[in-house]
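Holo model, adenosine monophosphate. Inputs:
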Amino acid sequence: MTMTDCLFCKIVAGEIPATKVAETDGFLAFRDINPQAPVHVLAIPKKHVASLNYADDALLIGDLVLFARDVARYEGLADDGYRVVINTNAGAGQTVFHIHAHVLGGRAMRWPPG
Ligand code: AMP
Ligand code: ZN
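Output:
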């Protein structure tokens, strides 16, 4: 299903360009346009789910997390470490309402996050 007004659905459909780093039948990973770390990749399901608040498919969310893990491996982050973040709603900084996991690495991560 493609949501006509959704930026990430348009990337899935090839209507907006993105720098893809990995793709499976159900998932796509591409570089964030405004990277916050040396490696900053967004991992998304091709199926539109607006946010974690709307997620009801445990397999889809589990596979999304494993896909994000695989992206971190491909990007060479697995040993040094990386962070996988799902911002949910405005208070957490969500700006695109198609669920996505940020995969961040290549620098030391601070805790707590801002
Ligand atoms: P969030 O703020 O958690 O919803 O994350 C949305 C992310 O999408 C931000 O980090 C943006 O920099 C990124 N972004 C927005 N537009 C694009 C685009 N056309 N291609 C790649 N990343 C994008
Ligand atoms: Zn979408």
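The mean pLDDT is 97. The beta strands are 20-23, 27-31, 39-45, 82-85, 101-105.
Archived with the compound record.
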